[in-house]
Design goal:
By secondary structure, the protein is an alpha/beta fold. The protein contains eleven helices and eight strands. The strands form two sheets. Strands 2-1-3-6-7-8 form a six-stranded parallel beta sheet, sandwiched between helices. It has a two-stranded antiparallel sheet with strand order 4-5.
Length: 231
């Protein structure tokens, strides 16, 4: 089902040794992946990343009383091409927007980590986002709870105005991105080439004023372009 990829180096930033070992065991059993290093705190994660320049980093939001998200922001500045998957816990919900805005390429819930890690690393390595459905629903609940608190427009007019900036096809592509579709999946769905889909994604980023797919997902949920109940 998933396309195997050439040798890919990863760094794991997980505080608990047993969790690190379990994750490394799953990764190393899969052809094409190698764990280059481990980190237990944010400073170590940044140093290891600069030393090994991994293709992918997997990190928790909190590393031994230090911020994994601060480390993500630093690494994204130093190594913008490195893909980062954040492992989130249920009590991270109040920091979800910060996690998305840090530029992560994927978010997994810790309880599903071992089951979803391989599909996630393959997705981000192929320049596609990977956000588990539980995370998406959590984002929607948070947005709903604070809806219209800062809106200057009447809600219906606000959403009508936002929807009008996208073509029907762009709106459909946004919904598929939110469902975790890859560029190739979207191309197959519409009968378009991967390059055509990439062009549509760039236009969506420009129109929405966002910088990456993670931000598009939040934008789509916030502005009612996508409803997680459609998943």
């Amino acid at each position: 089902m998933y396309k195997k990829i050439p040798q890919v180096n990863l760094i794991i930033g997980i505080s608990q040794k047993s969790d690190r070992d379990d994750l490394a065991r799953v990764i190393c059993k899969t052809n094409g992946f190698m764990v280059a290093g481990f980190a237990t705190d944010a400073n170590m994660l940044v140093k290891q990343s600069c030393k090994y320049r991994p293709a992918i980093i997997i990190t928790e939001t909190v590393l031994r009383r230090s911020s994994g998200i601060d480390a993500v922001k630093t690494i994204k500045t130093k190594l913008p091409e490195t893909k980062i998957i954040v492992v989130s816990k249920a009590n991270d919900k109040n920091h979800l927007f910060e996690i998305f805005s840090s530029g992560v390429n994927g978010i997994l819930q810790k309880k599903m980590l071992l089951r979803e890690i391989i599909p996630a690393v393959i997705a981000v390595q192929n320049k596609n986002p990977y956000f588990c459905s539980e995370t998406m629903r959590m984002v929607q609940r948070l947005i709903t709870a604070t809806a219209f608190s800062k809106a200057n427009l009447h809600p219906n007019k606000q959403y009508e105005k936002i929807l009008n900036i996208f073509t029907p096809k762009e709106t459909d592509v946004i919904k598929l991105l939110c469902r975790g579709y890859t560029n190739q999946d979207i191309g197959d769905h519409f009968g378009n080439s991967k390059r055509t889909v990439e062009g549509i994604r760039e236009m969506i980023l420009k129109k929405s004023g966002t910088k990456n797919t993670a931000a598009v997902v939040v934008y789509a949920i916030r502005n009612k372009i996508f409803d997680c109940n459609e998943c």
